[in-house]
Amino acid sequence: MPTTLAPLEELRAEAIEMVVWNPLVLPPPSQVKLHLHPATATHGKTDPIRAALAEAGWTWSEEATAADKAKELGGNLTNNLPMLQFDGQCLTQQTAILRAVGRWSGLYPTHTHTLAEVGLAADIDTLISACEDMVDLFTSSLFRRAKSESDKLDFGTAGMLSHGPKAHVQNLLRLLGSRASFTPPRITIADLTAYNAILIAKKELPATLAAPEFAPLLSFCLRIEQRPNMANWLAAESGGSPPAKAATTGGAAQGPVIWDDLLAEAGLQGQPIALASSLEVLTLACGVGRPALLQALKENGVARLADRQKLAGVVSKAVKAGRPLVDGAVAEAPPATPATDVSAGATQSPSEPPSAPPPPMDLTLYYWPSHGRGEMVRLILSESGLSWKQPSWSPVDDDDARLAYFAKCRTMGGHLTTNLPMLNIDGRYVTQTASLLRYLGRRLGLYPRSVEGTAALLACWRIDQLIAAADELRDLNYGAAAGISITRAFYARSTLHPHLANFARLLADADYFAGDGPSVADFTVYDVLVVAEKQTPGVLAKYPTLLRFRDRVAARPGVAAWNASDMKAAMQAEHQPVVKPDGSAVIPEWETVTPLGQASRRGTPLI
User: Fold this and answer.
1) Bridge partner residues of 570 (DSSP)
2) pTM given for the model
3) Which pLDDT belongs to residue 349?
């Protein structure tokens, strides 16, 4: 393990260079339907799914679906839209759907056996979360109330939202750097998520995005739109020709082109010209222009200029025809594994590799001196018997100490916006809670490392779905903690229960949510149940299976040791009851009553 840390960009480049990504590509399913919310239609968070379906070459229909019908199809008692329906399956939760499509079509890693592979997956996950944060800011009601672009740019620079919209755009610019895409040499669902976020930023902040400094982001979007499958889809969206029908070999209008066939077409057959990287890099370079394609050929094994010039023509011809480039002979696509019923109860876990990287050492967790989103990380580390350092500031420190801590974390994590929670692990700083969960899960055997077929893919979706559902309840938990008394009462009496009932439905009679043993999903669900019970004492008594689940996880040796530890006891008290045992709301200390009897707020606590 390195004792010094390389800059974030160097680590990412090193990981990409080390990874030989052989994706699982299953034949596209038939009769695919994307169910959309009637009010939002195709805008916002649904668009990355649509872009992934288009890039994958799937054929699908869309339907604006009423909440009652979506509930009947998807089964969730809370949020069912967007929802992807195919072959008797109904996949819910936007990012879980996105990862499922990505795994299915080679747009997201399916094998993470080495540190390099785990790191590359973390880079993709982190970018997805960063784009989510950005889109959440741009689509918030307060942001949309701003009357001018300058007002929008000022939004979020004070209070709990400490990063304005321009900082989020600049963060994407930093992550892109001088590369043609965010995750070279392959296009991934992270690129498509970033594409969507940049388009929203361009719509909301047209003058800002027109500045020369952001030209690389707009050029990136243009390259995405020039990709054959994306171009077909966008043309159909704008009323042009319909998208090319997906082929069973992976999603393009025609069959794939093999490297040896390209050599033969260029008159170079029989010459030992081996490509040093995936042919995807040539597809990407072709979208930039002929000079970039020639340079890519040179950097990937084609030494002679005359050979590069001959190959550039045939590569461009294949790419313009929408034909994917593959490295070797194309075997017949394996039959899809029969899909498992993942609507309730346990699911089949993918087989694990015989060996895994050694346990991580010298861990340091950076977070607020409180429970918060860092608790999920602590629970997983404790479950795995690991120890870690947890430097933070003291609740009695002044604002300067707190801001200095944030500045230090921003330097280490590299992001211009959100860096906490952040874990120093394996010689890198991993940020963004969802990315951290999956990174630790893959490292510690609490998240599938291999996806070999449909059943394993759906098992991954199950865990991703649970993580997203827990995040929804966590946001509500925090909203109640920071809310006025009427908000707290509504949360305890109405808002909380559909989510708890949904988790009870998903757990059914099983011990754990996604298999015979715990996964990262179980620890994040456990965390939101603990917080809900603290804020609404006795609420889990109405859901006995969830109560037993909470006690089962709490009794696990690592979790029990963490809950009894001095480190946890020293953290700032955070989750307090928001309702009294009789169900009446606890009036928060910052709420006052005006002479007219109307509630007002003096401030918002930092949680």
Assistant:
1) none
2) 0.79
3) 41
How far is the C-alpha of 165 from the C-alpha of 460, rounded, in Å? 32
DSSP-derived secondary structure letter, 246? P
Bridge partners of 64, per DSSP, are 36
The per-residue pLDDT for range 560-593, each reduced to its tens digit, is 999 999 999 988 888 899 999 888 999 998 886 5
Distances (CA, A) of 517 to 20, 438, 513: 30, 16, 9
Rounded to whole angstroms, how far apart are CA atoms 220 and 166? 18
Residues in CB range of 282: below 8 A, 6 or more apart: 293, 296, 297, 300, 315, 319, 325
DSSP 3-state of 361: coil
| Domain 359-607 in the same topology as domain 109-225 | yes
Q: Residue 513, class by beta-carbon neighbours within 10 Å (0-12 exposed, 13-18 middle, 19+ buried)? A: buried
CB atoms within 10 A of CB 270: 8
Instruction: Determine the pLDDT at residue 345.
Output: 34
Contact, 95 vs 464, CB < 8 A? yes
d(CA 466, CA 447): 12
Q: How far apart are CA 474 and CA 480, in angstroms?
A: 10
Q: Please check whether residue 366 is in contact with residue 420, taking contact to mean a CB–CB distance below 8 angstroms.
A: yes
Question: By the 8 A CB rule, do 217 and 208 touch?
Answer: no
Domain ranges of the chain: 109-225, 359-607
Is residue 153 within 8 A of residue 204, CB to CB? The reply is no
Report the pLDDT value the prediction gives residue 287, as an integer from 0 to 100: 63
CB of 263 closer than 8 Å to CB of 271 = yes
Residue with tokens 């008394």: 485
CB 108 within 8 A of CB 114: no
pLDDT of res. 599 = 46
Length of the chain: 607
Identity of the residue numbered 353: P
Q: Mean pLDDT in runs of 10 for the chain (607 residues)?
A: 36 44 78 87 78 95 92 94 94 96 93 90 96 90 86 69 83 93 89 96 94 94 93 83 37 56 80 67 70 80 84 79 53 34 36 65 93 96 96 82 91 92 96 96 95 93 97 95 93 96 98 96 98 96 98 98 95 88 88 52 38
Q: Pick from 464, 468, 433, 345: which is nearest to 79 by CA? A: 468
Find residue 330's DSSP bridge partners. Answer: none
CATH architecture of 359-607: Up-down Bundle (1.20)
Q: Which residues contact 66 (CB under 8 A, 6 or more apart)?
A: 38
The answer to whether 347 and 458 are in contact (CB under 8 A) is: yes
Q: What is the pLDDT of residues 478-501, one digit of tens each?
A: 999 999 999 999 999 999 999 999
pLDDT of residue 560: 98
Q: Could you tell me which of 478, 376, 382 has the C-alpha nearest to residue 436?
A: 376
| Displacement of CA 221 from its chain's centroid (Å) | 20
Nearest Cα residue to 312 out of 297, 301, 322, 327: 297
- 109-225, which class in CATH? mainly alpha
Looking at the DSSP bridge assignments, the partners of residue 364 are 389, 424
Whole-Å CA distances, 72 to 78, 346, 499:
12, 21, 16
Do 355 and 522 contact (CB within 8 A), yes or no?
Answer: no
3-class secondary structure for 544-577?
HHHHHHHHHHHCCHHHHHHHCCHHHHCCCCCCCC
